[in-house]
Amino acid sequence: MENQSIATTNTDVTVVTADALLKHWQGHRKLSRKALESFPEKELFEFSIGGMRPYDQLAKEMIGLASGGINGIVTGSWTTRPELEHFNNEVEIKTKAGLLAAWDEVTTQLDTLWPQIPADHFYDQVKAFGQYENTVVDTILYLIDNEIHHRGQGFVYLRALGIEPPAFWDRW
């Protein structure tokens, strides 16, 4: 009998647990927070390159998407806490300390609300923020991808300002 390779697929194998996914997301959030901390106050709100938004606006988007995302996934209400000017024109955060405090509040929200996601809900279809229809797990992956994208923009800003950004692998 000849040696034959048998091709198999593992499409139904659980690769990442819910707890591991939260840890992964929170690791990215820790690195994004380090990037936010690295900005000088003035440049955080004013500096941009090539028509991109200043980093405070990118950070507000990351804060709002994470907060509204976890709230929507758990409760069905895609609202942010703290309320951000970028999302609902109610409260505008005007200091780096205010952004860091909002960031930390959302970190607590994630840790509090995440365990309330039922295991079978991760593959339910949701319409995130009334716009994007996808599974819960794919919505979470989108939120993480969006944050990585904006953090990359922030790293470019920091380098342009002569500031070494945090190491991209330093997520713990």
TrEMBL record:
InterPro entries: DinB, DinB/YfiT-like. It holds the Pfam family DinB. Keywords: Metal-binding. Belongs to the DinB family. This is Damage-inducible protein DinB.
